Amino acid sequence: MIVAIDGPAGSGKSTVARAVAKRCGLTYLDTGAMYRTVALRCLQRSIDLSNAEAVTAVARGCDISFGVAEDGSQTVSEAGEDVTSAIRTAEVDHNVSAAAAVPAVREAMVARQRELGSAGNVVAEGRDIGTVVFPNAEVKVFLTADPKARAHRRAVQRGGEAAGADTAEEQRILDDLVRRDRIDSTREDSPLRPAEGSVKMDSSSMTVEEEVQRIVSLMVAAGWRGKGADAAGG
Ligand code: CDP
Ligand code: CDP
Disordered: where is this region (predicted)? Predict the structure, then answer.
C-alpha cells in the first residue's frame, strides 16, 4: 500500500501523513525534508542557490536518512548529523524552492525516495509523489487549503498562539508561502499539480481527524485490510 499526499505549503500534508502512518502502521516519508536538507547544506556552504551545477553537486553528496527521536517524533540526518530543526528555519523556507527546481537535484532525491519506499507500505508526502515518485500509488490525495489559513497555521506552528496573533509575521509567512507555491507550480520539472486519479481534499474546513478518516477510508476502498482498517469501517 502506497499513499501519496501532495499539495501546497502548509496544507497539512505532514500532519495528516504522520497520523495515517501511525494509525495504519505504515512508514512515513517526508520528501520536503530532503529538499530542505539540500538547501540547508547550500546555505551553510555559501553556495549560490541559482548555480544549478553547484547545487546539484551538494545534492548528490548528501547522505540523508530518517530516524525516530525519544518522544517518537521523526528526525532527519545528513551524513550522521541531526538537521531536524535546522531545516525548518525561515531562511530554508525562502531558499528551498530554488534548489528543488533543479532537475538533477530532483533526480537524486527521487532515487533516494524510491529506495526508502522500496519495502512498501508507505505514506509519502510532497509535491510530486503521485505524479512522479510513486505514480502507481494505490491512494493519491491532493490536499489544499486557503492560503490565509495555511499561513495562520504555519505561524501558530512556529511560535505558538502568540505568534499566530502577530499579523505582520503572518503576512510575511503568507508572502513566502505564495511565492514558494508559485515557484513549485510553475517549474518545468515535476511541477506541483494534482496527479491523475487523485482525490482533492480542502483541509480549510476539515479537522485533522476528519482528513485521516477520509484517507483511511480511501485505503480500505483500495484494498487495505491491515492495521486501522476496522476503525474506518472496512
Ligand atoms: O512543509 P512545507 O509544505 O512548507 O514544505 P515541504 O513539504 O517541507 O517542502 C519544502 C519545499 O521542497 C517545497 O516548497 C518544494 O520546493 C520542495 N519539494 C519538492 O519540490 N518536491 C517534493 N516532493 C517535496 C518538496
Ligand atoms: O506539511 P504541510 O506543510 O502541508 O503542513 P503541516 O506542517 O502538516 O500543517 C500545518 C499546520 O496545520 C499543522 O500545525 C496542523 O496541525 C494544522 N492543521 C492541519 O494540518 N489540518 C487541519 N485540518 C487543520 C490544521
Answer: 153-207
- Ligand 2 in contact with 14 (CB < 6 A)? yes
128 C-beta closer than 6 A to ligand 1: yes
Q: For ligand 1, pick from 2, 31, 62, 91 the residue to mutate: most ligand atoms within 8 Å of CB.
A: 31
For residue 11 and ligand 2, the question of a CB distance below 6 A is answered with yes
Residue nearest to atom 10 of ligand 1 (CA): 32
164-194 exposure pattern, b = at least 16 Cβ within 10 A, e = fewer: beeeebbeebbebbeebbeebeebeebebeb
Task: Indicate whether residue 127 lines ligand 1 (CB < 6 A).
Answer: yes
Residue reference for cell 505561524 = 155
Q: Give the residue carrying C-alpha cell 499579523.
A: 167
pTM assigned to the model: 0.96
Q: Which string of DSSP letters, residue by residue, matches 111-157?
A: HHHHHHTTTS-EEEEESSIIIII-TT-SEEEEEE--HHHHHHHHHHH
Q: With left for phi above 0 and alpha for psi between -120 and 50, is residue 10 left, alpha or beta?
A: left
- pLDDT-derived band at 233 (thresholds 50, 70, 90) equals low
This model of the complex carries an ipTM of: 0.97
